[in-house]
Design goal:
By secondary structure, the protein is mainly alpha-helical. The chain is built from 17 helices and no strands. It is about 55% helix and about 0% strand. The protein has 2 domains: about 160 residues, no CATH class; about 140 residues, no CATH class.
Length: about 400
């Protein structure tokens, strides 16, 4: 049994560990071949503050509204935590009462909800400059507890001055609707949308997400490289999108081959046929000339991100897979070298939990792992941009 822990003295490391643990709970982030750091680097450059389990943009306001009200309560920490959880669950009921059905976190789970909206959006609130408090949600509760103790120690002005309340939210945060916990919806007001755009401009001025938000661009396309305004993107963003497209396309073949190999080991003819068809389509769509012209040196340079360390083994895997593709994309499906490369990569990453080596783990496999093309959180960014564009 494996575990993940950290020493609780470095806030940056604590938040990094929390991001990693959050990924384990996100179905769409399955990373069977160790490409997650590259994928997330591209996504964080283009769409900072997003995650694959975010639903609707107004949660970026719901969370600070609810917590700003709770911060005024001088109650024990345990009670504050309990009330915060109860309030977030009540928000789901209020959204349902307001006629919302899609995107409501906790819509079906109710009091059994495990992943609260605050944990889903906490990192994004910081990345967008909506949250001024630098620590984790846990550390906020501790800070509020400390504030309450200092106030209780003495009623004097000196005592209050010696322990100033921590700045938690941006002072320009719009006013919370009076009936938020009775009836709520996801529709942004014009003032709320402008506040969110202003936060993006101030905190993430070079991000593609900021440019699209500022210009009010809402486009319904499956991938960011299919965007109708691609030619108008800033040069750096456009180049990164182009790199992301070829990386997503090339490495999709490795993911499909991984799923095909497992399907063959499971002796599932229906799965085998489906993955062979998908690999044939991948082969037909791939442009060998574009793959040959793809500069990996430039790619590693533009995707570099301080929050994600791309390990040398991951770079070697991408390089070796690209070489196999250039050697003959039509042969990759059956080439022993390609299958060996994919299998060895998964075995090194998963060790005793490798589906190639562990029969019990393989027998629990349900037929698809990371089988879709990498999209770098465009679906979530697209949803947020739509919410901004349709503010009332």
């Amino acid at each position: 049994m494996s575990s993940l822990g950290w020493i609780d003295f470095d806030e940056a490391e604590r938040q990094r560990a929390q991001r990693i643990m959050a990924l384990f709970q996100e179905r769409e982030t399955r990373d069977e071949l160790g490409l997650g750091a590259i994928r997330d680097s591209i996504a964080d450059h283009l769409f900072p503050g997003t995650s694959t389990i975010q639903t609707r943009l107004r949660y970026m306001l719901f969370i600070p509204w609810l917590y700003r009200a709770l911060e005024k309560r001088e109650i024990p920490e345990a009670q504050l935590r309990a009330e915060a959880r109860d309030t977030e669950i009540r928000l789901a009921d209020a959204l349902k009462a307001g006629g919302e059905s899609n995107g409501v976190i906790g819509r079906d789970a109710g009091p059994r909800l495990q992943r609260l909206p605050s944990s889903v959006y906490w990192a994004g609130l910081g990345a967008w400059g909506i949250r001024a408090f630098p620590g984790s949600l846990d550390s906020l509760f501790v800070a509020l507890r400390g504030r309450g103790r200092s106030r209780g120690a003495s009623g004097s002005e000196d005592a209050l001055a010696s322990a100033p309340a921590p700045a938690v939210w941006n002072p320009a945060l719009p006013r919370m609707p009076d009936d938020l916990l009775d009836q709520a919806n996801f529709r942004l007001t014009a003032d709320e949308a402008q506040f969110l755009i202003d936060r993006l401009v101030a905190s993430q001025p070079t991000a593609l997400l900021t440019m699209l938000a500022r210009e009010g661009i809402d486009a319904d396309c499956d991938h960011i490289w299919m965007h109708p305004h691609l030619s108008a993107f800033p040069a750096a963003a456009r180049r990164l999108v182009q790199h992301g497209e070829i990386f997503s396309h090339v490495m999709h073949g490795a993911a499909l081959l991984y799923n095909l190999a497992l399907s063959e080991l499971r002796q599932r003819d229906d799965w085998i046929e489906a993955y062979r068809e998908r690999l044939a389509a991948w082969r037909d769509d791939l442009d060998p000339g574009a793959v040959r012209a793809w500069s990996l040196d430039e790619f590693w340079s533009v995707v570099e991100h301080p929050a994600h360390a791309v390990r040398p083994a991951a770079k070697r895997f991408v390089t070796e897979w690209r070489e196999l593709v250039l050697g003959g994309v039509g042969q990759v499906i059956s080439a022993p070298g390609a299958r060996q490369l994919v299998e060895q990569r998964e075995r090194r990453l998963k060790t005793s939990q490798s589906r190639f080596g562990n029969h019990a783990v393989r027998d629990r496999w349900t037929g698809a792992s990371g089988a879709d093309r990498l999209s770098f959180r465009w679906a979530q960014a697209k949803s947020h941009l739509r919410d901004l564009a349709h503010a009332e």
